Amino acid sequence: MKCVIIDDEPLSIKVLSKHVKHTHGLELVKSFVNAFEGLYYIQTQSVDLVFLDIQMPGVNGLQFIKILKYPPKIIITTAYKEYALEALELGVIDYLLKPIAYERFLGAVSKSIEQNVLSINPVVQDKEETNRFFFIKDGSHYVRIYENDLLFIHGDRNYSILQLSEQKFTISGNLAHYLPKLSPGKFYRVHKSYIVALDKIEKYSARSLWICDTTIPIGRTYKQSLMRYLEKRRF
Length: 235
Known about the structure:
Blueprint: E1 2-6, H1 10-21, E2 27-32, H2 35-44, E3 49-52, H3 61-67, E4 73-78, H4 84-89, E5 94-97, H5 102-114, E6 133-138, E7 141-146, E8 150-156, E9 159-164, E10 168-172, H6 175-178, E11 187-191, E12 194-197, E13 203-204, E14 208-211, E15 214-217, H7 220-231
Parallel strand pairs: 1-2, 1-3, 3-4, 4-5
Antiparallel strand pairs: 6-7, 8-9, 8-12, 9-10, 11-12, 13-14, 14-15
């Protein structure tokens, strides 16, 4: 994952750079002490993950996020805890308080990597794979669920609702539990609480999509890659 650090404190950049260097799968492509330079870079280059400070001259981190039309994944790195709720509502991956220990840093990065488990790039599937299925527990029985029948999954803390064409099931386990079990390229997490079947999307806007008259919000964290996928399928 190509990542960028935006922080007006050189010491913080040094610490984060060291953490990135020690983390497999991360590549630090740029660091900025000037938020406006970082903003221009993100708007013109391909970036997967941003480590973003909040209190910076000219523009703070929350304003920075709101400016971006299709923000990449963002992890806040700050000394101020009072902005956590607002930042999380804007869809950031995590909110790290300085000084940032490597273990805490790695936990935040793991959340970001989890969101990339399902790629939305088209994949070629074998014929045997076109109607994959799995079993879920329903009371004392296990029920077969075909992926082709699955519209979306709505997660709520420690349980999830599987919405099928004709019925739905409430099962234990959050979205992170089910995400790796689904076919890559067929399902995508569009919000912290929703995984959708890409071929079941009937219409969409900048903030929402619709599947069988159900309105599903699009989270800021997931918006950029989802819109790229959908734009490729426009006439």
